[in-house]
Amino acid sequence: LGGVPGVPPGKVVIIGGGIVGTQASKMAVGLGADVTILDNNLGRLRELDDVFNGKLKTLYSTPATVEEEVIAADLVIGAVLIPGKITPKLVTKKFIKKMKHGAVCL
């Protein structure tokens, strides 16, 4: 994910800025990846920006933003959980079909 000299780093998109998303971000940033985290809580996005000291990008999660980021990603990590509810399906088959060849979605 971090690339080698002459190769750009992999683009990692993490949907959800909770505990799982934060830990995934730490791993990806540590590997030198280009990391973007999406969440619908602006307060949480501010916290993540502060914690990571600008080493990752934070974006407010909207259907259009999710589609745009997923299509451009090399690795997508879904880390959304709403306690007591069914996990929302934010990444559709349509988005996955548009992803680059070899991209991974977890």
Describe the structure.
This protein is 36% helix and 20% strand. The chain has four helices and five strands, in the order E-H-E-H-E-H-E-H-E. The protein has helices at 19-30, 42-51, 63-72, 93-98, and strands at residues 11-15, 34-39, 57-60, 75-78, 104-105. The chain has a five-stranded parallel β-sheet, sandwiched between helices. Strand 1, helix 1 and strand 2 (34-39) form a beta-alpha-beta unit. The longest helix has 12 residues, at 19-30. It is globular, with a radius of gyration of 13 Å.
Distance between the termini: 15 Å
Class based on secondary structure composition and strand pairing: alpha/beta
* β-strand number: 5
The helicity comes to 25-40%
| Dominant shape | globular
Residue fraction in strands:
15-25%
Q: Radius of gyration from the CA trace?
A: 13 Å
Please count the helical segments: 4
The main pleated sheet reads as: 5 strands, parallel
Question: Looking across the biggest beta sheet, what order are the strands in?
Answer: 3-2-1-4-5
Query: Any low-confidence stretches, pLDDT <50, length ≥5?
Result: none
Query: Taking all residues together, what is the mean pLDDT?
Result: 94
How do the SSEs run, as a string of H and E?
EHEHEHEHE
Itemize the secondary structure elements and their pairings.
Elements: E1 11-15, H1 19-30, E2 34-39, H2 42-51, E3 57-60, H3 63-72, E4 75-78, H4 93-98, E5 104-105
Parallel strand pairs: 1-2, 1-4, 2-3, 4-5
